[in-house]
Amino acid sequence: MTVTNPRLLFLHGFLQNAKVFSEKSSGIRKLLKKSNVECDYIDGPVELEREDLPFELDDEKWQACLDTQVNKAWFYHSDVSSELNLDAAIKYVADYIKDNGPYDGIVGFSQGAAVAAIVTNRIRELVPKHPDFKLSLLIASYSFTEPDPAHEGLLRIAEKFQNDFKPRSHSRTRMLFIYGSADQAVPATRAQYLANLYKKALGPEQVKEFEHQGGHMVPNKKDIIRPVVDEINEALAA
Q: InterPro entries given for it (predicted)?
């Protein structure tokens, strides 16, 4: 009987690519390597043009993005959740898993974390022969929210994405969340909102949160990431 190493699929953030995400998450990746966990980093399917950015970049910085090929994304940005379209991104990841899986878990950062959450919830539907992930690690994650018409001042998942972000109540996937208290791109409250959806559906023992003092980043300090990697190894061994 052949025993294969555990495998995790990594999805980078907006204006990033697989190579950069591998470098940014090197602390986690190196600790996982000691446990013989294979990390598979893939590029998003969207190639961004300058006008696709939600902020201004000068000529030199944009050229640097092109030179390093970080003009990648999973979907085009919009501040209005109902305008987002993730169909191509979800199909891309599902097809990749069909061709290269199975995977024991999935890891996403920012935009990639939003995609990873949806793929986690829908993996049985997207890839029918694929088992549930043992774990899903969402870093600087968020969901697609809009004002809740029934509760003034509160948010809800945008109507078109409510099924995507609905955790399956019988899922055994361990959900891990990392977020920064000083994150201005994706405030910690957005990651906490998503984490709470899973806590309500799966119970707090299956959902773990790890907060760090930094911003929009993948932490690499061992005191932060070692407990995360311990959780990953425990989930993979189950």
A: AB_hydrolase_fold (IPR029058), FSH-like_dom (IPR005645), LovG (IPR050593)
Would strands 207-212 and 174-180 be described as parallel, antiparallel, or unpaired? parallel
Q: Where are the alpha helices (DSSP H) in 110-213?
A: 111-126, 188-202
Q: What is the pLDDT of residues 55-113, one digit of tens each?
A: 988 999 999 999 999 999 999 999 899 999 999 999 999 999 999 999 999 999 999 99
- CATH code 3.90.550.10 for 7-237: no
Q: Is 110 one of the catalytic residues? A: yes
Any catalytic annotation for residue 216? yes
Give me the pLDDT at residue 137, please: 98
Please pick, among 43, 171, 183, 212, the residue that the annotation labels catalytic: 183
What is the length of the chain? Answer: 238
b/e burial code for range 153-163 (CB count within 10 A of at least 16 → b): eeeebbeebee
79 is catalytic: no
